[in-house]
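In response to reviewer comment 3 from the previous cycle, which asked for concrete evidence that the modeling workflow produces usable outputs, we include below a single protein chain processed end to end. The sequence was submitted unchanged, and the resulting structure tokens are shown without manual editing.
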Amino acid sequence: MATHAPERPGLNAPYTAPRYVERREALATYFDSTAKQAWIDLTSDAKVSGIRATVRAGREQMRRTLVSWLPRDLRRTRLLDAGCGTGALAIEAACLGADVTAVDVAGGLVEVAKSRATGFCGHGKVRWKAGDMLDPDHGGFAHVVAMDSLIHYSPDNLVDALEELSTRTTGSILFTFAPHTPLLGAMHSVGKVFPKSDRSPAIVPVAEDDLCARLARLDGWSIGRTERISSGFYKSQALELVKTG
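The workflow returned the following structure tokens.
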């Protein structure tokens, strides 16, 4: 257990690990200001640079992968989209019948998601919320999907967050992490030398073996499918956690 992990007085207690909270607030500021328009363009049909086009293609492939790991019939099934961004995955899950709670720290992106969801056709529904994906007030879920929303956190905080989500999930947790490669490792190291004011929240590469070893502490959960997607500058790995007890 990480030394900075919070005390856990009960399932309804808020998750307040200092490093997690600090990182969460930095992400909220970044995606609601500096990166907001770029993110809106990236997740739309707007023309983007060649580099961003590869990222867009990679994200679309990742979203399809994660959705394919969910049951095909999600009617009356509660699902948490943890870090929903502009809402594409939440809407797709709702079209399969899911009762989706879609949460993101960036309130501006949640407003974009709401506007894009107007008039969508599907048997399910989406509750859009700006805030912390770990807030216990969101309730319990059959499935949780965290696509590229944990990639900015340290391995300790990433696994702490998954453990927190596991206490309120009965079926599966699907998430992505940035797999450690020489390129990502170098980019992460170089990013640390820039002045704080010039940095965007860095992606934190994680070695797969180290991550799997850390996940062993999640009692009653096992590792299922995994798939790495590489599309130009987009490199992300999906991993499935399955409830076993």
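Residues 50-68 form the longest helix (19 residues). We consider this sufficient to address the reviewer's concern, and the full set will be provided in the supplementary archive.
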